[in-house]
Amino acid sequence: MSVLGRALARSFLRSYLVAAAFNTRGMQNVGLVYAMEPGLQAIYPDAQARREARQRYVAHYNSHPFWTPLLVGVFLSLEDKIAKGLFPPQVLTTVKDTTVYTLSAIGDSLFAGSLLVFWSLSTACMVAAGLPWLALAWGLLWFFGLHLFKLATFLVGFKEGLKFLTRLKRWRLIDWALRLKYGNAVLLALFLHLSWPQDMLAGTWFMGVTVVGAAAMVVYYSGISREVIALLVLTAAAAVPLLLDG
């Protein structure tokens, strides 16, 4: 493996630690500099040039962790072109300021708000259906798929740079996040069907749904912690039968 290849491998592995030094001022900036350092050492043998390149990453940085390998790969690709005189250093600042926060919003919607929910609901359905080993295999598939996704986007990001970001925009990931949310609603209904007690009456079911909906509205409009609301609802549910018996 070449010097650059070893440096890229180290930068990729370090991208997993980008949030290890999270701080309130720069958020993930320390972790980003740590991930970039092996690649910058290979691209800039001169210490002064490397110091100037490093300064481009010490400012504020915060993005979804699933996108970090891609961003590190793209940044190193741009640094390689800057070192060769193909791009001015200012282009890195422009790309960093726009791409980082755009991908952060997409990541929150697609990964945290859709895919992770899809995995958890589908796993819950498998467990409720009495298929725990299938649920375990499903989880392992997603686990290894995530790391393959990180590696693939890192390599493509370094190889194609800005070209891949342009192609990524055409994928319309926000639209896919919305479609997944519709699918998650179907999975939630399936989970309720699989886990619902068979002897529960329709009136009891309707009352339960009403209580959950009302609790959600209280959380939304009052700002009270959902954990507090859930505790109050469970306490009331336990107290009502006791009061009726009394």
TrEMBL record:
Transmembrane annotation, as ranges: 110-134, 140-158, 179-196, 202-221, 228-244
PROSITE patterns linked: PTS_EIID (PS51108)
Keywords: Membrane, Transmembrane, Transmembrane helix
GO biological process: phosphoenolpyruvate-dependent sugar phosphotransferase system
Gene Ontology CC annotations of this record: membrane
Annotated InterPro entries: PTS_IID_man
Superkingdom of the source species: Bacteria
Protein name: Putative PTS system mannose/fructose/sorbose family transporter subunit IID
UniProt organism field: Megalodesulfovibrio gigas (strain ATCC 19364 / DSM 1382 / NCIMB 9332 / VKM B-1759)
